[in-house]
Every structure is written in C-alpha cells, then in structure tokens.
Q: What sequence folds into this?
C-alpha cells in the first residue's frame, strides 16, 4: 500500500472511483493520507447512483448533508420518496439501488371496495397505510415497474412484504402463483401464504411449495416473488410486471396484511 501514498491525489481518487464503497472504506483505513483522499466528494459522487439528485429531490423530508460521503451513508438507511409511497435505499457494500413500493401503489383486486379491504395505519409500517384483507374469493396483487429505476448489470430479487393477522382464515387453502414478467421472459413459482400451522395442515401433506416465508429484520414477513436481471444501461427503460395471484379456483379468505413489494439486489 506504500505505493499509493506516493501517487498524486487525483490519480488515487480516479482509482477509488472505479472500485466499490466497501473497497473505498478499506483503503481509507490504510493511512491518514488515503483516508483524506477516500473521503473526497469526487470519489463518493461516482459511488452514488447516477440519478441520485433526481431521487433525493423526491424525498418527503429534505436531506441535509455536508459531503457526498455523508449523503451516501444517509441513503443507506432509506428515505421516503414520491409522496411517501415508496422507500428508497442504497446497498452499503455496492451502492446498488433498492426500493419498497407501498401497498397504495399496488393494484389489488377490489382494492377500493371497503367490503373486501381495509386501509389503515399501523405503527410498525414505514408507510402511512397498509392494506388488510377482510374477505375475498380470489386474491390478485400486481405492480408495474420500470427497469430505469434499478441499477444496471444487477440481479434483483423481488419480495412481497406481509403479515398474517390473528383473525386470518383461508390463506392456506390453495397455493398462489408468483411471477415476474418482462418482455417474453417470465419467472413463475408457487407459494402458500399462511404457513403458521405447518406443512401437515396444508393440502397435499407431502407437497412442498417452492417459496417460503421468512421473517425480516423489520418485523414483517417476506416471500420471494421472482428474480430479474437488469443488464441494460440506467437510461434504458423497460416495463416489468410483478404479481401474486390465485390461479386454481375460488376460496374465501381474509386476514392478509400487505405493506408492499421490495425490489433489492440479490446475492
């Protein structure tokens, strides 16, 4: 590392700008000189998303920061954008973008019918409202998103964020189909939403569905809907559709609480 201390500052900055946030932080630990160079706005501007300024302009709360590195760290903790209907964050190790789309931005079958859905505030949600299913015979949840919102050359996982209320019923009757569709490519899987009673209480006792629920650090549950590789440049734009729906019959159900859908880099 002594060779870096002998290089011009602008040369080191250019090298660091071609690495990752994780590598830049590692370099900064080598010496006080490299720490100074690694903290420069030039370096951290290149590590931020290219459309960062447009994104922070949409923040619900104005962001105050004294350097690009401070802005990067702030965005690692997520901000609310688009009137509070989306949460945006960047991954600390790579600077890749991720989003959570609130339930209010999703298309729910009969979502505006109070006989079927209740829209309410809950303290554990990052959004002002979540959707709770009262009763319905067919569950359909969809979202249409654009690849331009994602980081280029990145494999993304797409996750349904939910909870099961104590009054839930009928959610383990049949599996749902999850899918991510872009152009002529479609990633399709099956899952069961209510796994509280265990596999033995589900239809076809020995059948194991591909997707299972996992508990998140924020207290919610998530189930993976599918994957998407965004290989294009960030200025290229394609629409992709994410869905969770019943495709086999009609079964009465209720008690599903939806916070939203997350799109995040997958490793």
A:
């Amino acid at each position: 590392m002594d060779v870096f201390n002998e290089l011009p500052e602008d040369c080191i900055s250019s090298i660091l700008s071609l690495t990752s946030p994780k590598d830049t932080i590692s370099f900064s630990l080598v010496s006080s000189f490299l720490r100074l160079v690694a903290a420069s706005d030039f370096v951290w501007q290149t590590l931020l998303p290219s459309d960062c300024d447009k994104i922070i302009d949409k923040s619900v709360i104005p962001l105050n920061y004294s350097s690009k590195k401070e802005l990067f760290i702030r965005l690692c903790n997520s901000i609310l954008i688009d009137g509070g209907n989306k949460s945006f964050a960047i991954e600390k190790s790579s600077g890749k973008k991720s989003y959570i789309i609130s339930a209010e931005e999703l298309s729910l079958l009969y979502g505006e019918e109070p006989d079927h859905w209740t829209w309410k505030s809950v303290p554990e949600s990052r959004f002002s409202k979540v959707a709770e299913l009262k009763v319905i015979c067919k569950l359909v949840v969809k979202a249409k998103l654009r690849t331009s919102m994602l980081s280029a050359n990145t494999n993304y996982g797409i996750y349904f964020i939910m909870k099961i209320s104590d009054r839930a019923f009928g959610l383990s009757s049949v599996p749902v189909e999850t899918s991510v569709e872009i152009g002529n490519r479609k990633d399709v899987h099956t899952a069961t939403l209510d796994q509280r009673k265990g596999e033995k209480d589900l239809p076809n006792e020995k059948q194991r569905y591909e997707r299972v629920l996992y508990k998140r650090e924020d207290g919610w549950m998530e189930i993976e809907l599918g994957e998407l590789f965004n290989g294009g440049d960030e200025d290229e734009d394609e629409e992709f559709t994410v869905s969770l729906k019943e495709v086999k019959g009609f079964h009465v159900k209720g008690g599903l609480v939806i916070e939203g859908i997350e799109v995040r880099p997958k490793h």
